Fold this sequence. Notes:
By secondary structure, the chain is α/β, with parallel strands linked by helices.
Amino acid sequence: MTIDPIQTGILAYGMSGKLFQAPFVTAHPGFTFRAITERHQKRAAQDYPDVISYDSVEALLADDAIDLVIVNTPSTTHVALATQALQAGKHVLLEKPVATTVAELEGLLALAQQVGRRVLAYQNRRWDSDYQAVCEVVESGQLGQLLEAHFRYDRFKITLNPKPFKEDPIPGSGLDFDLGPHLLDQAISLFGEPLSSTKTVGCYRPNSRVTDYFHFHLRYPNNLNVFVTGSLLVAQSGPAFVLHGTKGSFTKARADVQEAQLLQGLAPTAPTFGVEDPAQIGTLTLADAADVRTTTAYPSRPGSYLGLFEAVYQTLRNDQPYPVQEQDLRTQLTLLESPAVG
Length: 342
């Protein structure tokens, strides 16, 4: 079968472009890494000698050969740059958050339909090894009726981020819009749209002007409660995933190694890529009718963000449904936009 590679341009070569986009665009046979925008330092050629380095977004968008543009710039620029790319006739792969409001998202989707192009969300954490283990356990039914699920993403960073867009109190800033989209997307992907929700946020770091703690309580049918939490002031993290049901429990550390391996220069095609440290294995505890409990280790399959790029390829070339659906994004932004209590 002949592959028609998607000619791809990436809008920045910071950490995101260097780690999370370029290696996978290069590794997947359905893509060609054609161009990058580098306004200041020209660094991409050290890793990709054949890539075209444009001095501006406008120059990259004027390249008629480019089919797909990856918008991986600061979150405050996502909507504007995605709009420019669509108006230039490009498909868009858009990092989180895809927008700061549902209204902005609807504008992007309407424009994409008008120009006959697609806006796809780069929600890579669906392809984490730890989250995939959670999905397997839930979908297997081993826990019985699921009653409670906790998803956490914690860090300890008491000092302020030197990047202004991370700390300025503007739309899309704060931890809820930074890590929140990862966790909310995972919850929405697994459980769907909640019946109701409550949002709590906090600002606790010295001199911080943005949210550095968030907590969502999502209520679902059949008495399922899902708790989504993130903090920048957790010095000793516990499990990232805790699930309780009528027949057992499952706990799992945040154990996906892809980012660490990419920082070390490991290619996504390497045999050990995405393979978790065995010490981070999940724990499944099941109870029988006599309340006899059995605890076993639950290994994860390797994670790979190549799965996301395969989904992008199948959507753009073969018109297959994209896993991160438009309604998922509406639900996510509705939750992020909701007023906090307390």
